[in-house]
């Protein structure tokens, strides 16, 4: 269960979806997951997380944000996670796949809806980048688009809307993780947009031969989830 996942689960009916969520974790071999925009009240967190992640460990950012927009959970048989930074828009830590002993940094992101609110998120990510010398994966809901094609709506996309995330990617020297399946990750049936993404840094491929992100439309809620897979590729035999 080396795979990791980001679930944007707004609209999830918890009482009716817990068994389906457990099956999703098992069938997709997920050992590390974050849940975004849960809308769960603080007094219900332990009960719901304890049922959903039976035998797992988890953290959430209710200490930084009363609404608790980000939960992170990991199965202790397959992952170890040391949380290094927690804010209202991210949880950042160092993860180790216990089966392979491969370690990497991972940042789970939930960006606010308005541009001026996201400025502190970009500052925090830039600060992490400035100290990063190992493999790093950044994924989640950035609430920001990267190209003109990342949103379909009646009015045109403005240039400033794509400059925000594009500038951050250039500054942090991120690479888009190869992906498949649905392009747009959110819709209200009038607007379609690609705001959920997975990135890696230049050190990533020194640790992992290949990583792939799969977008799972309407898998558990009305939002698209991201499944990050670590497929095993046989190494070529050395020549005689």
Explain the overall architecture.
This protein is α+β, with helices and mostly antiparallel strands and 240 residues long. The chain has one domain (3-229): 4-Layer Sandwich (Deoxyribonuclease I, Chain A), CATH 3.60.10. The protein is 22% helix and 32% strand. It has four helices and 16 strands. A seven-stranded mixed β-sheet has the order 3-4-2-1-16-15-11, covered by helices on one side. A six-stranded mixed β-sheet has the order 5-6-7-8-14-10, with no helix packed on it. Strand 5 and strand 6 form a beta hairpin. Residues 234-238 have low confidence and may be disordered.
What order do the helices and strands come in, and which of them pair?
Layout: E1 3-8, H1 14-27, E2 30-36, H2 45-52, E3 57-60, E4 70-74, E5 79-86, E6 90-97, E7 102-110, H3 115-130, E8 136-141, E9 151-152, H4 159-172, E10 175-176, E11 179-180, E12 186-187, E13 192-193, E14 196-200, E15 212-216, E16 225-229
Helix pairs in contact: 3-4
- Supply the number of helical segments: 4
H and E order: EHEHEEEEEHEEHEEEEEEE
The number of E-state strands comes to: 16
CATH topology: Deoxyribonuclease I, Chain A
Which range best describes the helical content: under 10%, 10-25%, 25-40%, 40-55%, 55-70% or over 70%? 10-25%
Q: How many structural domains?
A: 1
Poorly predicted runs are 234-238
CATH superfamily: Endonuclease/exonuclease/phosphatase
- Which CATH architecture? 4-Layer Sandwich
Strand content: 25-35%
Query: Helix/strand/pairing class, anyone?
Result: alpha+beta
């Amino acid at each position: 269960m080396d795979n990791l996942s980001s679930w944007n689960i707004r609209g999830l009916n918890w009482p009716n979806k817990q068994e389906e969520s457990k099956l999703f974790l098992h069938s997709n071999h997920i050992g590390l997951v974050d849940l975004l925009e849960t809308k769960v009240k603080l007094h219900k967190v332990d009960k719901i997380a304890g049922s959903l992640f039976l035998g797992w460990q988890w953290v959430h950012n209710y200490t930084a944000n009363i609404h608790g927009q980000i939960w992170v959970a990991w199965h202790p048989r397959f992952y170890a996670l040391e949380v290094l930074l927690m804010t209202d828009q991210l949880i950042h830590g160092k993860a180790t796949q216990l089966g392979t002993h491969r370690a990497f940094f991972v940042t789970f992101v939930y960006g606010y809806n308005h541009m001026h609110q996201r400025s502190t998120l970009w500052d925090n990510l830039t600060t992490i980048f400035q100290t990063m010398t190992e493999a790093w994966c950044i994924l989640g809901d950035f609430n920001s688009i990267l190209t003109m094609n990342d949103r379909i709506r009646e009015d045109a996309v403005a240039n400033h809307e794509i400059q925000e995330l594009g500038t951050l990617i250039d500054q942090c020297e991120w690479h888009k993780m190869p992906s498949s399946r649905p392009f747009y990750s959110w819709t209200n049936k009038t607007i379609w947009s690609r705001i959920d993404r997975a990135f890696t840094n230049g050190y990533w491929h020194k640790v992992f031969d290949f990583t792939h992100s799969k977008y799972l439309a309407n898998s558990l809620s009305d939002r698209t989830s991201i499944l990050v897979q670590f497929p095993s590729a046989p190494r070529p035999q050395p020549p005689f």
